[in-house]
Design brief:
The chain is mainly alpha-helical and 364 residues long. It has 15 helices and no strands.
């Protein structure tokens, strides 16, 4: 009976994900690092299967080198969502080459230290990812507003996944020291499954996966905004005017970087002005405009909820329903039914929140 190691199954799933991701029609340039990450994990899964499923011992020299490429590539993928200068890009590419070269050097002169070196590489990049996450969702300039919150969560989970991977490396090191490597195959196979989780998060970043159904949580309370300056008020006026006249919020691929280019302003100036003037982040501001448009369409047209979802700039029903309930306190269907009830029984109406009062609606 033919034995098919579990890593081969993981590799097949990763290749399917790579094809779907590549053919999805999104900007391949933006997603290039994520595509490379999927491909790297697929190759690594195949080699792990050959090494521990079929005993190809020669691959023991290749696997640590590929493993050293993973953390820098994860960092590059997330850092690319923030927009990088030429110098930063060169530094990240240098780290992508230096990490595996360092492992090759250790294989030649001090192979005992390879596992410890991998632990340092994984943990170091996990810390770097957490430092990026501290800057908040508004720093992800290239992420779509519809998925920026998910991207920020995925950034944190990716850092945790790297830490867990480093834990497996530590267990492998201890197993060689205490049990002469008897459990290494099982440890490596289980660690390989983390690659699938990590790649799933990468796909979710670009909006490929459907957001999971979940209970609606109340919006997190933001600290009181600092007193806006006259420049902040000018930025908000320009932003409102562009949003109103060009309906940019209806663009499902809109992100902070594109918005900054359209206004001709630095992205940090736009996000800072929104936070100080309105007490919300940029994605909340844009989603509020989308929900306002959805409310109008629900009241004035007979379009289906799905058609209204796409017309107002949302991509998934789960995200649309979650944001609609967060902003209005009810579902889209309940909102439409309430408007019908108002026409039938005008004396039994509920007070509708002012559609142009962004701060109050977002804070509901």
């Amino acid at each position: 009976m033919l034995f098919i190691p579990l890593p081969f199954v993981v590799a097949l799933l990763l290749m399917v994900m790579f094809i779907v991701f590549f053919r999805s029609g999104d900007d391949v340039r933006t997603n290039r690092a994520f595509l490379a990450l999927i491909a790297l994990c697929a190759v690594q899964s195949v080699l792990v299967g050959l090494r521990w499923g079929y005993g190809v011992s020669a691959l023991r020299y290749v696997l640590p080198v590929l493993a050293a490429c993973l953390p820098p590539l994860v960092y590059i993928a997330f850092r690319g969502l923030m927009g990088v200068g030429e110098e930063s890009r060169r530094a990240m590419l240098a780290s992508l080459f230096l990490s595996p070269l360092f492992i090759v050097f250790l294989e030649m002169v001090f192979p005992v230290a390879i596992d410890l070196a991998l632990i340092v590489i994984f943990v170091g990049h996990a810390v770097a990812l957490l430092l990026l996450a501290r800057k908040g969702p508004d720093e992800l300039d290239e992420a779509q507003f519809a998925s920026v919150a998910s991207a920020h969560r995925a950034l944190i989970i990716a850092a945790i996944a790297l830490c867990v991977s480093s834990l497996f490396d530590l267990l492998v090191f201890l197993d060689f020291a205490w049990a002469h490597g008897e459990n290494v195959g099982a440890l490596v196979s289980n660690a390989n499954l983390l690659g699938l989780l990590l790649i799933g998060l990468m796909a979710a970043l670009a909006g490929k996966s459907k957001a999971p159904q979940m209970a609606v949580e109340p919006a997190a309370e933001l600290p009181p905004p600092a007193k806006p300056s006259e420049q902040d008020r000018d930025v908000i006026e320009r932003l409102d005017r562009v949003m109103e006249t060009q309906t940019l919020y209806r663009d499902e691929n809109l992100n902070l970087s594109r918005l900054a280019r359209r206004l001709g302003l630095p992205s940090r100036q736009i996000s800072g002005a929104i936070n100080r003037s309105l007490g919300v982040n940029v994605s909340q501001y844009v989603n509020q405009l989308r929900i306002r448009e959805a409310c109008r369409l629900l009241e004035e047209t007979e379009q289906s909820v799905t058609a209204i979802m796409f017309s107002s700039g949302f991509q998934t029903k789960s995200n649309f329903n979650r944001e609609f309930r967060r902003v209005t306190g009810m579902s889209p269907i309940d909102w439409r039914e309430r408007q019908v009830w108002k026409l039938v029984s005008p004396n039994k109406t509920a007070t509708r929140p002012a559609p142009d009062d962004r701060l109050k609606m977002v804070g509901k």
